[in-house]
Amino acid sequence: MNYYLTHITYPILFVAVFARQLSLPVPALLFLLSGGALAGAGKLNFIGVLLVAVLGCLLADQVWFEAGRLRGKRVLRLLCALTRDPSFCIRRGKEVFAKKGLRLLLIAKFVPGLDGICPPLAGMLGASRGAFLLHDAVGASLWAGAYIGCGFLFAQQLNKVAQSISAVATAVVLIFGVPLLIFFVLKLAQLVLMIRLLRPLKIRPELLKSRLDSGEKFGVIDLLRFEEDPEGVAAIPGAVRLDPLEIRRKKRIVVPEDVNLVLYCRSGNSFVSARVAMAMRKHGIRNVQILEGGLEAWKRLGFPLTEQFADIEAEVARLGMEVSPPWKSIPALKP
């Protein structure tokens, strides 16, 4: 019997499923298939394998559920941070969950991406623990049972299945594992670079306020649309709200040397602003700064806020910037 299969145990199954539900890159599906095959061969108990898998799901999902109740938006931003458009990821998740409710948990584990954000969304949107656990348990049972059942059906050809699973596991590691490892290493390097980038780029709210009052040429860019749903959130006077994805689509952005750009998001977490600053630097724009503490720091100091944004075309003209193709205006907040 294949070494890989013979060393599958209940604790290993639990750890694999638990880690997978915590969004760690563990091939839990292969472990479930193997557990089902061993159950069919009489080496493990089918119900035992299913219960262990469901327990691993519930415990990990409960962690995300509680995190969503305590720090909902921050957790969602963390889970969506590496996607191409984090704001779309968050908005889309909210829309789908608002439409389907906890019933979404019944199928979420079969849908990559949706599985990860459903538990924190349920916590953030006020679902009860009992209802969450019930729906999540049913969804986990359907998901785990499907893969365990597939392994169980091939129990009569255990050795052949074992060899196939090992071959598949090796192929998955080579085809997907290595590129994923490279991807995560690149993302980690990007994060380290952004942290280093932040140190000299931060500007304190007090300094920004005084320099704006003195009439210096500053362009203030509000990134709340990128960070989260910005409805009802006031802005720094003179700011324009831009979609950072637009920056990547521009063929040409030229900012005069005497013009400073300041980016801000809502909180002190400058990860969003740092990503945008890096994108701007790729366009050769060096005079970019990030508001330390974000909009929350500005508000704590009692500095003025407005319900109206500056017109993007007027701001581009005032600052003498050249942008091609022109930026799309985002509707101003309603007074």
UniProtKB/TrEMBL annotation:
Keyword Cell membrane tagged: yes
InterPro entries recorded: DedA_domain, Rhodanese-like_dom, Rhodanese-like_dom_sf, VTT_dom
Membrane topology reported for the UniProt record: Multi-pass membrane protein
Transmembrane segments: 12-34, 46-65, 132-155, 167-195
Keywords: Cell membrane, Membrane, Transmembrane, Transmembrane helix
Listed PROSITE patterns: RHODANESE_3
Presence of the UniProt keyword NADP in the record: no
Signal sequence bounds: none
Domain of life: Bacteria
Compartments, as annotated in UniProt: Cell membrane
Domain Rhodanese per the UniProt entry, residue ranges: 236-307
CDD domains associated with the record: RHOD
UniProt-listed PANTHER family: ALKALINE PHOSPHATASE LIKE PROTEIN, UNDECAPRENYL PHOSPHATE TRANSPORTER A
This protein's name: VTT domain-containing protein
